Amino acid sequence: MNNTFVKADEALLLEVAMRFGFDAKQSSNLVKDVWHAANKVISGQHLDKFAMRLYLSKIMVAKCVFKISDRLFSQSNSQSSFDLSESSSSNITIQRLKNVPLSYLAAFILNKTSKFSIEEISDVLNISPSKVKERIKKAYSYMQ
Predict the structure, then answer these.
(1) pLDDT tens digits, residue range 41-83?
(2) What is the pTM of this model?
(3) 70-92: buried (b, 16+ CB within 10 Å) or exposed (e) per residue?
(4) Which residue, 41, 53, 69, 142, is most buried by CB atoms nearer than 10 A?
C-alpha cells in the first residue's frame, strides 16, 4: 500500500470510527483491521488518493456498522436505533444522536463530521446520491 496516504488516511479512519461512537482504543483496533483487510486486496496495486480514500472508508464504515449491529443484535431487547456510548469524544451532542437509526447516522457522520461529498458517501454506502440526501435530512429530523 502506498505509504504517502497512510497518515492522512489513518486520521480520517480514526475520526470515522470515533464518530460512530467507538472509543480511542476501539477505533485504533478498527483502523488496524481496515489496513489488514485492505492490504489483502490491494497489495501491489496503485490507487490514486481519491480511490484509496473511498476504498478505506468503505471498509471502515462496513466494520463499524458490523460491530454496532453485532452489539445491537446481541442485546436481549432489540432496538431499532443506535445508542452512542457516553465515552465518545464527539463534538456533536450525544443526546441528539441517540435515536438516529444507523443507516441515517452513517450518512450524517460521513457528510457532516468527515466532510465527504454526497457522491463520495454514495460510493461508500453503495446507495444513490438522492438516497444519501434523504438519509441526511432524516437524520436531522431525528435530532430535532
Answers:
(1) 777 777 788 888 888 999 999 999 888 877 765 654 444 444 4
(2) 0.67
(3) eebeeeeeeeeebebeeebebee
(4) 53
